[in-house]
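BUG: 3D viewer hangs when loading the predicted structure for this chain

Environment: internal workstation, default settings.
Expected: structure renders.
Actual: progress bar stalls at 90%.

Input used:
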Amino acid sequence: QLQLVESGGGWVQPGGSLRLSCVRSGGTSGYDAIGWFRQAPGKEREAVSCIGPGNSTVYADSVKGRFTIFRESDKDRVYLQMNHLTPEDTAVYYCATARNFYLNYLMPAHWYDFWGQGTQVTVSS
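Structure tokens produced before the viewer hung:
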């Protein structure tokens, strides 16, 4: 069974940075995309970023220039570097994986097959 585990959430002051990690395991063959989502209280789950084959990436407009999705040698470990955080970034952050990746298109949540449990990010002074 494919599983994902997020870590790295926490509290940070506005303007600060956090790095989230997502580790994927168990039958990952054929799942090309790993995406990050977030969900704030009372709001729908929002796509943040996604990484695919060849380390191609795509971002939501709200995080472009502030967040970076990347991975190192292990294709099943993905990071989300979040800089210049604002209170509007406060949410539970989830990673998920999907079979397909589309360049220049941020897939919606229902296109993903497996999800992690989420990690809380709180930005406040």
